[in-house]
Amino acid sequence: MIDILWAVQDKLGCIDGEAMSLIAEKTGTYRVEVEGVVSFYAFFSSVRKGKIVIRLCDDIVDRHAGVFAVAKSFENTLGIKLGETTPDHWFSLEYTPCIGMCDQAPAALVNDVVVTNLTPAKVKGIVRTLKKTRDPRALVTKTGDGNNGHRLIAAMVKNNIRHTGPVLFDKSPAEAGLKQALTLSPGGVLELVVDSRLRGRGGAGFPTGKKWRYAAAAQAALRYVICNADEGEPGTFKDRVLLTERAQLLIEGMTIAAYAVGAAEGILYLRAEYRYLKAYLEHILARRRSRGLLGDNIMGKAGFHFDIRIQMGAGAYICGEESSLISSCEGKRGEPKNRPPFPVQSGYLGLPTVVNNVETFCCVPPLIARGPKWFTSIGTPHSSGTKLLSVSGDCTRPGVYELPFGVSVQDVLDKAGAKDPAAVLIGGASGDMIGRPEFQRRICFEDLPTAGAITTFSSHRNVLEIANYYMDFFIDESCGYCTPCRVGNVFMKQGLEKIMQGLGEAGDLDYLRELGKTIIATSRCGLGHTSPNPILSSMKSFPLVYSALLNAHPNEFQAGFNIQSALDEARVIAKRRSLIYDVSYGDEE
Amino acid sequence: MRKKRVATVSLAGCFGCHMSLLDMDERILELLQDVEFDRSPLNDLKKFTRRCDLGIIEGGCCNEDNVHTLRDFRNNCDVLVAVGQCAIMGGLPVMRNAIMHSDDPLRECLEEAYCSSPRVYNPSNQIPNDPALPLLLDKVYTCVDVVKIDYQIPGCPPSGDVLWATLSALVRNEPIDLPYDMVKYD
Amino acid sequence: MNKTMRITVDGRKIRASPGQTIMDACDDAGVYVPRLCDVEGLVPQGSCRVCTVKADGHTVAACTEPAEPGMKVENDTLEIKNYRRDLVRMLFHEGNHLCPICEASGRCELQAMAYRLRISQATKYPYLQPVRPVDASHPDIALDNNRCILCGRCIRASRDVDGKHVFEYVGRGIHKRIGVNAENLAATNASIDDYAMSLEVCPVGCIIRKREGFFAPIGARQFDREPIGMDVETRQEHHVPKRRPDPAFGNDGTK
Questions:
Q1: pLDDT digits (tens, 9 = 90+) for C167-181
Q2: Smallest Cα–Cα separation from B135: which of A567, A38, A495, A311?
Q3: Which residue, among A351, A363, A358, has the nearest Cα to A215 in the 3D structure?
Q4: Structural domain tally of chain A?
Q5: Tens digits of per-residue pLDDT, B99-142?
Q6: Backbone angles phi, psi at A218, to 5 degrees
Q7: Are strands A379-380 and A383-384 parallel, antiparallel or unpaired?
Q8: Mutate: best of A335, A476, A491, A510, partner C, most C CBs <10 A
Q9: Does residue A71 carry a pLDDT above 90?
Q10: Which of A61, A159, A275, B48 allows an S-S link to A112, with CB 3.0 to 4.6 Å?
């Protein structure tokens, strides 16, 4: 379904009521179901968009890098406001959440083409080129390093690999892991993975071996292996680099997983923002098929059949949650499923499904080739191996760093050249914000777990503004399924804004804490379990910043109510001033 | 023990809640043993004569005068009780807020009410605008939007029974514990 | 297959059969777990979260969480009640729930839940006062989305019982709402006789049956007489087993 919708959206610039009816008719579904899916994903639209859609990334890192000025410049040059389309239906301009380019912010997507390091001055040239060529690809004058220069990617994106580690950038010969795995029984592979104590790199850290064992044990005729390349966490871009540079390793890892759990089909779920990588990844898959590394009897192993298709996402953060991702693969609204049953028991189309992060799969081949002993010798007792970190924000060397688990936050900051770090967000929007006294804490599942995002903020940034941005992000990205996440997050944001405006009182902090507790306790999936984190953790780490903004002498009136602005409209309509609240008419207030 | 001083007012309400006060019937005499009324439409006293223990608010705020009165009550009463749905969540007047999709909702509301509605007879086609009329607010606010409220008694109107139960408990400084069938939102 | 197990709810031991949810086991035992999106006869979906309970220390939705042998469930504790109050308040503040003008008042489950949870005092939550469209196109039915709490009962009733699929969720986040399978309701095949349009499906006053409003006088309405959940609490006396669609038949509740 998502593929059909992409095709229609690309062709018509929208999926309107008529198109929905037609799609429903042809696919044997209902129009309202199609509408439900279209309205769920940010990249689909029921009103007609321009042929060229410019999506500016408004992540907090991009904001600090000046995306607002860039946006203003686009507005002036194109003559439209954000969210609008030019009358000739050529250009649309809008904001989009993190596109995974925080290390080269501000960045934008022009259709599928990524444009990085924007400045207001560059905008005129960009618009001129687009108007002249009507082809976003013309914007790429110089391609980035590594495979970014490959003819099927041809992107100006830079990899920014700052530190390579022993696992993901392991120098073992290609396919060594797969070759080794195929000499073992599937059970033997499972054992190695279990012994390596490999844990999921997507953030939650579920033991990969355990997950695979459950899936292998489930009774079913067909099993699925899905790779989660829906890297939506603001500030994370490490999977982008792996997909660009280590695609072979990733597919090898998926193939080993398929062998271990007995899966015959795989899906690579690629986020819409990384569509520029799709052609390249298709090419890698095709090459592997031709080399007998995918398809029937892989590497001559009789009876081992496995193939992978790419499923495009369409702009929904929640699809990074594994059961939502499965819903999305099934062509539905990307809403989480009830669990139990867990995906390993009943996932894609009701079949046992293993969903793992890109980085997790990439860890598998070296681990098999070199053995669990080697793998567990890196990292900490409960977090073996390395972690690929995406460092961005206020630092001189933003990029990806492969470091062993257990590395301290301070070490990472030093490596990245963060000169004046005051606050660091570990793990993106859903992570914890910590202050200087906690920089000695270590990055690992025992202490500070992260899916990879390390966002640094220097002392002249406003912690509340940052927390507010992330709250906005969660409000936009909540699927709306359950009450606490749908409604509670809006209340959280309004409570925070009251404090930001200097209208808060001590009680408002308790209010936020209690509200956050209810959201965390009663939400249905990980989004709601973590959405209050930016506010709650910043309140904990920076109590003085909050208390400094509180009104020390509150009175019995509600500070949030402003009589002057409430009267403005009536003044205009009645063409007179207030007898009570306009001073010149009396002395009452 | 001195009698508790009570003030009441009806803002953007229909006076139904005040009528309901009278539904306490002969219990109102019992209540008068412990309270005396200050500013209230019940005794037609328009200004506070002194500070009160309890302020009872009916109705929300839809114009500047409502806001002014409500703040006056907050300044002059120790405890404020919002009585009835209008005071608590806006009630019927708050339906006006449902036309906020327009760019100029207040004008749309007035034009609909005085000019364009099919059943309006208004040959001058003018929206009333006497200087003595208080200016309307951009939307209807509940009491708790404007000042801090200590207690609320839901109902439209709250029954004489629930008013009696709450007020007599407040006057005697006892905890309010209402049985299931007394709390109603309509 | 029929080997029953025992779980403990607030210290009371009750029976549960394998595969049964906490909610169903409680219902059979006459223990009421407050709920809004779940209703007898439809597949549970766990979206309103009002049925949140603590099972072995974890907060879960009772309507979707399977009972496990020996499970210890907390249902009527202060902590859980506070969560439920917060959730019901969120629903009240999310939409426009003007009880005095609502035809469903007195038989509204949202209102009744607030009564049962003794919500009478002010909160700090802001009223969102959304402006959502009203669809009065259908000759017999009107939809006032301002009162919708997104429980999805009409979606499931129409899909699984009527076999029609008149409703579905559209949009996401705070903008999520119930869409109809055409430009408006009149253009769908919805009928006043659909189960989805019956009084027991919509818990609030969103689906309005035209010309039937205010059929019961104040004092004689459903929840004027007894609190919501009394039917469950007295179920054992009447020996009525709970109706659930058989999962073996997929989603179709009629089979």
A1: 999 999 999 999 999
A2: A567
A3: A351
A4: 4
A5: 766 778 899 889 988 998 888 899 988 999 998 899 999 999 99
A6: -65, 140
A7: antiparallel
A8: A491
A9: yes
A10: A275
Residues spanned by the domain of A258: 163-377
Q: Is A567 on the interface with B (CB under 8 A)?
A: yes
CB contact under 8 A, B137 and A567: yes
Domain ranges, ordered by start, for chain B? 4-96+139-182
**A347 plus A274 within the same structural domain:** yes
Q: Report chain A's mean pLDDT, rounded to a whole number.
A: 93
Residue B103: which residues within 8 A CB-CB, separation 6 or more? none
CATH number of the domain residue A476 falls in: 1.20.1440.230
Which residues 22-41 of A have a C-beta within 8 angstroms of C?
30-33, 35-36, 39-40
* A569 inside 8 A of chain B by CB: yes
Helix (H) or strand (E) holding A95: strand A91-96
Instruction: Identify which of A290, A333, A286, A330 has the alpha carbon closest to the alpha carbon of residue A311.
Output: A330
Residue spans of the domains in chain C: they are: 5-76, 82-212
- Does A498 have pLDDT greater than 90? yes
Closest chain A CA to residue C21: A340
Fold assignment, B4-96+139-182: Rossmann fold (3.40.50)
Question: Which of A165, A160, A168, A152 is CA-nearest to residue A101?
Answer: A160
CA of C4 vs chain B CAs: smallest distance (Å): 36
- A and B: number of Cβ contacts within 8 A: 66
3-state secondary structure chain C: CCCCEEEEECCEEEEECCCCEHHHHHHHHCCCCCCCCCCCCCCCCCCCCCCEEEECCEEEECCCCECCCCCEEECCCHHHHHHHHHHHHHHHHHCCCCHHHCCCCCCCHHHHHHHHCCCCCCCCCCCCCCCCCEECCCCCEEEEHHHCCCCCHHHHHHHHHCCCCCEEEECCHHHCEEEECCCCHHHCCCCCCCHHHCCCCCCCCCEEECCCCCCCCCCCCHHHHCCCCHHHHCHHHHCCCCCCCCHHHCCCCCC
**Predicted local confidence at residue A328, as pLDDT:** 96
Centroid of chain to Cα A51: 25
Q: What is the pTM of this model?
A: 0.92
B31 close to B105: Cβ distance less than 8 angstroms: no
What is the nearest CA distance from A37 to chain C, expressed in angstroms? 7
pLDDT at C251 over 80: no
Over residues A165-206, the pLDDT tens digits come to 999 998 888 899 999 999 999 999 999 999 999 999 988 889
The verdict on a CB contact (< 8 Å) between C122 and B94 is: no
Cross-chain CB nearest to A40 (options C45, C91, C172): C172
pLDDT at position C252: 36
Question: Cβ contact (<8 Å) for B138 and A573?
Answer: no
Query: Is B127's Cβ below 8 Å from some Cβ in A?
Result: yes
Q: A487 and C174 in contact by Cβ < 8 A?
A: yes
Residue A427: other Cβ atoms inside 10 A: 23
Q: Are residues A200 and A143 in the same domain?
A: no
ipTM of this complex: 0.92
Chain B nearest-CA residue for C219: B181
The class (CATH top level) of C82-212 is alpha beta
Read off φ and ψ for residue A113, nearest 5 degrees.
Answer: -85, 130
- pLDDT digits 0-9 by tens, A356-394: 999 999 999 999 999 999 999 999 999 999 999 999 999
User: Which pLDDT score, from 0 to 100, does residue C249 have?
Assistant: 40
A485 secondary structure, DSSP code? I
Size of interface A-C (CB pairs under 8 A): 120
CATH number (3.10.20.740, 3.40.190.10, 3.40.50.300, 3.90.180.10) of C5-76 reads: 3.10.20.740
The 8-class DSSP code of residue A399 comes to E
C149 chain-A contacts, CB cut-off 8 A: 483
